[in-house]
Amino acid sequence: MTEWVPVSSTAIRKIGYDLSSKKMYIDFEDSDPYYTYCNVPETLFRQFLSSSSVGRFYHQYVKNQYNC
């Protein structure tokens, strides 16, 4: 089951994570549907949620790193 969490960001609405498949989903403000990232460690998802800037964290640690 996917856990969706709304985030405070100008570019990202919410972030989802499915522990059983290790897939992370990002719902961007300017796109439909959401983007899917594979083999994402749960710790990275938790760090993403607690980062001071989810946009900066995305560009530094997620973008082009966990493509399916």
In brief:
By secondary structure, this protein is an alpha+beta fold. It has one domain.
Report on the architecture of this protein.
The chain is α+β, with helices and mostly antiparallel strands and 68 residues long. It has one domain (2-62). It is 26% helix and 31% strand. The protein has two helices and four strands, in the order ββββαα. The longest helix has 9 residues, at 42-50. It starts with a strand and ends in a 6-residue tail after the last helix. The model has no long low-confidence stretch (mean pLDDT 94).
Task: Give structural attributes.
single chain, 68 residues, alpha+beta, four-stranded antiparallel beta sheet, 2 helices
Strand content: 25-35%
- Strand arrangement, major sheet: 1-2-3-4
Structural class of the secondary structure composition? alpha+beta
What is the percent of helical residues? 25-40%
Mean pLDDT: 94
Spatial shape: globular
Order of helices and strands: EEEEHH
Number of strands: 4
Largest sheet: 4 strands, antiparallel
Q: What separation lies between the terminal Cα atoms?
A: 18 Å
Number of domains: 1
**Which residues sit in consecutive blocks of at least 5 with pLDDT less than 50?**
none
Radius of gyration: 11 Å
The tally of helices reads 2
